[in-house]
């Protein structure tokens, strides 16, 4: 194919620098999660306020990522990456020396503005610099960074928080970020690969209101409740703005985010699988720390260490999965990985107060082993069907949907857990006799009801994973359309 012949020989120096920048950005995303109780205590703020350290990061990502398709086409890789690293490094410095929570939150949001550009930029470079028969291997390395960095975040954070104050989480990242910035300035070659296109201001406004409103609404629902006026208002404004935004993109000659990527069936299927997986798999990231620290009484370090073997397995498997994808395609890998993930996730829906720590480690590691065989193969297969001109839009679309579905999954599972816990607490309280209402019994009811809520949330996520598994049977190996026939879908069946 002509399109394959036009692929530029990989610039490995460029890719290594981009991977290093993406690694610290992904690491920063989860590094503060275990430190939230310490930050809350130092600044004397409520749980709903401190949560904005992570929610604000996600919100900025969700608002800016849709614009990255335009940025990738408008500016050179070097200029865009340097701008992203400058923002990320500046935000890290502000967060590390923050005298108040307001400064800390500002630092996190500046960090996020840089990180939002990195993932779509790196994915676009991978797609444009590698021929299709080697993309699996290349995306496997990218998957190692995308999955391994945030996975080791809780373990590293737990250790550091146990021995140092929370600003150390910023101080260990800032010199690495600065080093990557300096190396990038000298090693990345400037190329005139940008296009002279103008940004549509109305699209930016609609995108911000749409994605921002939806992310804020779902992120706030877990804390404020679904009936809260602010939640309903932001969700309503978000969905209306998003609908107008989508219709406007179809009318523009040069859309900011081209929704025509959904004319390609394998990309559409990959989006559906990724969305439902994100909805389900956030159960582990949200529910396990609650179960381990609040119900079982493990330390933050012990909770973080529990996730470390799984992170190592995912790190080892990502390049292997990439090679297997090149050889066998996405279908076999996805069905196998989702089956393993579904079974291990179901086991987590039957947690008790006596399950040994070692058993939890094994189940969690098995769950992450299954995940390692799914995300990158599905995403790569979908992107493979797009013509090169749509690669920036496809990568931006994937990144945006990951953020939105993660926020929705978080709110959904927290609501499910809380609703079930409240119902269980009321039922257990009614079963008590008036002579058996000691403080110890009330505390036991609180623990048992919360455990039942966590189990039910895992069960709901297992049902969602079952639907995802059904979708995976429709995967076919995708090839990009022939040059000059951009709308023709060329699909090679497995």
Automatic annotation (TrEMBL):
Its main location: membrane. It holds the Pfam family MFS_1. One of its GO terms (cellular component) is plasma membrane. Gene3D superfamilies: MFS general substrate transporter like domains (1.20.1250.20), Multidrug resistance protein D (1.20.1720.10). One of its GO terms (molecular function) is transmembrane transporter activity. PROSITE patterns: MFS. It is a multi-pass membrane protein. The chain crosses the membrane at residues 12-32, 52-73, 80-103, 109-127, 139-162, 168-187, 199-218, 230-247, 267-292, 298-316, 456-475. Keywords: Cell membrane, Membrane, Transmembrane, Transmembrane helix, Transport. Coiled coil: none annotated. It is found in: Cell membrane. The keyword 4Fe-4S does not apply. Residues 14-480 form the Major facilitator superfamily (MFS) profile domain. The keyword Ribosomal protein does not apply. NCBIfam families: efflux_EmrB (TIGR00711). Belongs to the major facilitator superfamily. EmrB family. This is MFS transporter. It comes from Alkalihalobacillus alcalophilus ATCC 27647 = CGMCC 1.3604. The lineage of its organism: Bacteria, Bacillati, Bacillota, Bacilli, Bacillales.
């Amino acid at each position: 194919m002509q399109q394959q012949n036009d692929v530029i020989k990989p610039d490995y120096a460029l890719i290594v620098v981009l991977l290093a920048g993406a690694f610290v950005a992904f690491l920063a995303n989860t590094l503060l999660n275990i430190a939230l109780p310490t930050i809350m205590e130092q600044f004397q703020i409520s749980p709903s306020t401190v949560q904005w350290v992570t929610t604000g990061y996600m919100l900025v990502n969700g608002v800016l990522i849709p614009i990255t398709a335009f940025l990738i086409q408008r500016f050179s890789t070097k200029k865009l990456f340097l701008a992203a690293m400058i923002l990320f490094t500046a935000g890290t410095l502000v967060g590390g020396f923050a005298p108040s929570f307001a400064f800390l939150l500002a630092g996190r949001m500046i960090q996020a503005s840089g990180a939002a550009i990195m993932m779509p930029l790196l994915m676009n470079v991978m797609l444009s610099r590698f021929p299709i028969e080697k993309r699996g291997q290349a995306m496997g390395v990218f998957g190692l960074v995308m999955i391994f960095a945030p996975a080791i975040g809780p373990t590293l954070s737990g250790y550091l928080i146990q021995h140092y104050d929370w600003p150390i989480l910023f101080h260990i990242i800032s010199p690495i970020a600065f080093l990557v910035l300096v190396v990038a300035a000298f090693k990345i070659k400037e190329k005139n690969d940008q296009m002279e296109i103008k940004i549509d201001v109305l699209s930016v406004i609609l995108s911000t209101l749409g994605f921002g409103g939806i992310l804020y609404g779902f992120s706030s629902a877990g804390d404020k409740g679904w009936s809260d006026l602010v939640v309903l208002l932001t969700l309503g404004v978000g969905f209306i703005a998003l609908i107008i935004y989508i219709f406007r993109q179809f009318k523009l000659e040069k859309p900011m985010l081209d929704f025509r990527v959904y004319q390609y069936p394998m990309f559409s299927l990959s989006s559906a699988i990724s969305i439902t997986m994100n909805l389900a798999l956030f159960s582990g990231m949200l529910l396990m720390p609650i179960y381990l620290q609040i119900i079982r009484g493990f330390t933050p370090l012990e909770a973080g260490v529990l996730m470390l073997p799984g992170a190592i397995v995912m790190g080892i498997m990502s390049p292997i999965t990439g090679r297997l994808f090149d050889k066998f395609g996405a279908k076999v890998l996805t069905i196998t990985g989702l089956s393993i993930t579904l079974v291990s996730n179901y086991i987590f829906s039957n947690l008790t107060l006596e399950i040994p720590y070692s058993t939890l480690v094994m189940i969690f590691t098995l769950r992450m082993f299954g995940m390692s065989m799914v995300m990158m193969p599905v995403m790569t297969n979908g992107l493979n069907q797009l013509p090169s001109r749509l690669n920036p839009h496809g990568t931006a679309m994937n990144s945006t949907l990951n953020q939105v579905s993660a926020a929705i999954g978080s709110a959904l599972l927290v609501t499910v857990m809380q609703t079930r816990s409240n119902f269980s607490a009321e039922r257990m309280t009614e079963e008590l006799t008036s002579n058996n209402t000691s403080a110890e019994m009330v505390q036991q009811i609180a623990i048992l009801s919360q455990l039942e809520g966590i189990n039910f949330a895992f069960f709901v996520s297992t049902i969602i994973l079952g639907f995802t598994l059904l979708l995976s049977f429709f995967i076919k190996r995708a090839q990009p359309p022939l040059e000059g026939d951009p709308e023709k879908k060329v699909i090679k069946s497995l």
